[in-house]
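At this stage, I put together a protein sequence along with its fold in token form, as given directly below:
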Amino acid sequence: MNDSAAGLAPREPAHRSRAKKTSYQVSAADKFITVLIYTLFSLFALVCVYPFYSIIINTISANDISARGEVVFLPKHIHFQNYLDVFKIPGLGNAALVSLGRTVIGTTLTVGASAFLGFMFTQEDMWGRKFWYRFTVITMFFNAGIIPWYLTMKSLHLTNNFLAYVLPMVVAPFFIILVKTFVESTPKELQQAASIDGAGIMTLFFKVMLPICKPILATVAIFAAVDQWNSFQDTLLLVTDSKLYSLQFILYNYINQASSLSTMVNLQNAGSTAMASLATKQTTTSIRMTVTIIVVAPILLVYPIFQRFFVKGIMIGAVKG
């Protein structure tokens, strides 16, 4: 009885069976290099992540133990009183609103200006295109210094002014270069076809190029938002009105005044039974670490949302196709 009569599938030829069993043999050297690379990158990731992890576990551990440096890998005697106490510090909420406002408004203006200027610098019929592009880029390499910058800002009445946070960062040469490179990597036929159909320069920008530039604009938005959120030097030099203090400047002051702040918070909670224990009594270390987490956490949460746009934008914008 043959295979077909028995209802069995016909057998494959022997040479095909042997061909399927053939597989790529990884050498011992390749395996060693692979393991070494993964180990090195894992250690590098651990070095990057551990400082944040260490701060977090110290903020939720007993303050007396944390102050002695005994919290290393795992939290001890977990509590969240630190966060409740730090939020009671005067001016923290207003500073958060100022930082949020400057980040949203400043990032929006920076992205809009970078997108438009980056697009315009690719238009060959723009008057003085090469001159204006080089004039913009040269500011990346030369600046007059802090004192002339301060005098300029003061003459423009930008001291104790919220606009001091957003206007100086509107035109950012590095972001303009990123957008320009991205636009140059797109097919020119798109703009040519729209021009033939009668589209003007603004129509080309808003309806043709702007939707295509979303990846690089998301990248610029991340960079600009991080710059705005982390900036405190402009507050230090230009602002004396406490209502305009940014969150990073508050952190700067709190770190320098952590000892007096811990005393103040402890006095405010002197009547509370929760403060009777050394585990929840504020220390210089607990104040510094808790405020650090409060300031850093929002921007850390933004990164994963824009990560895919960030990678795509950098990869496309970095290579002219």
Observations:
- Confidence is low (pLDDT under 50) at residues 317-321.
- The domain at 90-256 is CATH 1.10.3720.10 (MetI-like fold).
- Residues 66 and 280 are 11 Å apart (CA to CA).
